[in-house]
Write a structure and sequence with these properties.
Blueprint lengths: L2 E7 L9 H8 L7 H13 L6 H19 L4 E7 L6 H10 L4 E6 L9 H12 L4 E5 L6 H15 L10 E8 L12 H16 L4 E6 L13 H10 L4 E5 L8 H4 L1 H13 L2 E4 L7 H14 L1
Parallel strand pairs: 1-2, 1-3, 3-4, 5-6, 5-7, 7-8
Helix pairs in contact: 3-11, 4-5, 6-7, 8-10
């Protein structure tokens, strides 16, 4: 009997026409205002019309499946379910029941866990699977040594592009997607996980100067975890920092929050401030990253 692997991720609009229904689902049935919709469409247009996330995620799922098949022929069946864009978790998870599986491993393509991200994925998967089979949940993998080693190497590769005479005024900024501050009242450890993973990566890279920032906060009445990366860049400039290496450690692929929020928005601000901003290369379907995730799945099995 094969073990099922349900890989889950946020999802993204696959065509320009999908932007409005996609954000309507995110907003729990409330369509974005015309002004917000135009802003969102403009951001996707800056990336060529759509985000590459769908293709990147498909490549990651295929990469995990290929690694598992290489090491454990015929033992795993890997399928993908999205939170907000077809194929949805609710459409894919029941297929394991229909096909007679007894055990499914749930893996979210996000290194850190929180009540508003990985927990929600697992809750939705569990609701679909019910009593029919056993779900083994992988909520986070930010502290896996192989992951830390990959991040540290990318940080050092980015630092190598900065002249030696400016290293003393260079700082590495690790960032992740912000979430509403209300999660902290219930003991959510998401911020602590980010800081711990950044510390591990900084130690592995031999860094002496680094900091944390948050990005991509939603527009709601509730306050979101900060400080925002744009505010941090302003503060670093005021403190005499000339060069910044941006390492979005909370993201696993090229998509809107990386390609727009950092490569366009943060880059434009850095140019205005006179800061040289360099971003680490995204993980995407790097073979070492795929091998690491396959290790995590195999260990859970």
């Amino acid at each position: 009997m094969k073990t099922g692997v349900l890989v889950m991720a946020y999802g993204t609009p696959t065509t320009p026409a999908d932007v409005e229904p996609y954000y309507t689902r995110i907003r729990h049935g409330r369509p974005p205002t015309p002004e917000l919709l135009k802003e969102l469409q403009d951001r996707y247009n800056d990336l060529g019309g759509t985000s590459p996330l769908a293709a990147r995620t498909a490549a990651q799922v295929a990469g995990i499946a290929a690694e598992l098949e290489l090491r454990f022929p015929g033992q795993f069946d890997v399928r993908f379910g999205s939170k907000y864009e077809p194929p949805m978790i609710e459409d894919v998870a029941p297929s394991f029941v229909e096909d007679g599986f007894e055990h499914v491993i749930g893996l979210v393509l996000a290194p850190h866990s929180s009540s508003m991200s990985t927990t929600q994925y697992m809750d939705r998967a569990r609701a679909c699977l019910g009593e029919h089979l056993r779900l083994s949940e992988i909520h986070s993998w930010w502290d896996v040594p192989a992951f830390i080693a990959i991040i540290a190497q990318r940080v050092n590769d980015a630092l190598a592009s900065i002249p030696d005479d400016r290293r003393a005024t260079t700082e590495v900024l690790f960032s992740a997607h912000s979430l509403p501050e209300k999660i902290l009242a219930n003991g959510d450890t998401y911020p602590e996980q980010l800081r711990a993973s950044a510390q591990l990566a900084a130690d592995a890279a031999g860094l002496t100067s680094w900091d944390l920032a948050w990005q991509s906060a939603g527009r709601t009445a509730d306050p979101w975890i900060g400080p925002d990366i744009l505010d941090v860049l302003r503060a670093k400039h005021a403190a005499g920092i000339t060069d910044v290496v941006s390492c979005p450690i909370g993201f696993v692929s090229d998509h809107l929050e990386v390609l727009f929020d950092i490569d366009i928005q943060a880059q434009e601000l850095s140019h205005e401030l006179g800061i040289n901003l360099v971003r680490t290369v995204s993980l995407n379907d790097d073979p070492a990253f795929m091998a690491m995730l396959a290790d995590v799945v195999a260990a859970r099995a």
